[in-house]
Design a protein that fits this description.
The protein has four helices and eight strands. It has a six-stranded antiparallel sheet. It has a two-stranded antiparallel ribbon with strand order 3-4. The chain is 34% helix and 26% strand. By secondary structure, it is of the alpha+beta class. The chain has a single domain, classed as Aspartate Aminotransferase, domain 1, CATH 3.90.1150. Helix 2 packs across helix 4 and helix 3 packs antiparallel against helix 4. This is DUF1801 domain-containing protein. It holds the Pfam family DUF1801. InterPro entries: YdhG-like (IPR014922).
């Protein structure tokens, strides 16, 4: 695992959020962080320089190397609030149609305005992803 750049750090979650230039994105990140803490019951950890992850999950890369990643997470990016782990392999497709305005990428959910989403649907997405991805260790 030592060749991975994105690993858990001792950085402050609050500092990551505060370093986000956009005020609305900071507020959205705080709300999302609270929701994810509430659903997972886990403490957040900064991974790399700006991703906030909850829990752990092992995975194997295409070349057979064993790796570890966070089970669910978020990052307050300039363009959008990015959620990780909620859309792996088409998971939660049944909920995405009811979520509200968003886009998706490989395992990522991009949201421009958190308050535009259906909070119950987002909560269920986090709950399902946590149940599926998290491997206590």
């Amino acid at each position: 695992m030592s060749d991975r750049k994105t690993r858990p750090t001792d950085a402050s979650v609050d500092e990551v959020i505060e370093s986000t230039p956009d005020v609305r994105r900071r507020e959205d990140a705080r709300k999302a962080l609270w929701l994810m803490r509430e659903v997972t019951g886990a403490d957040p950890v900064v991974w790399g320089s700006s991703m906030i992850g909850f829990g752990r999950q092992p995975y194997t890369t295409a070349d057979g190397k064993e790796r570890e990643w966070f089970a669910v997470g978020l990052a307050p990016r300039k363009a959008a609030l990015t959620f990780y782990g909620l859309t792996y392999y088409g998971s939660n497709d049944d909920l995405l149609a009811r979520l509200g305005p968003h886009t998706t990428g490989k395992g990522c959910l991009y949201v421009k305005e958190l308050d535009a989403l259906d909070r119950e649907v987002l909560t269920e997405m986090v709950r399902r992803a946590w149940r599926e991805n998290h491997r206590p260790g």
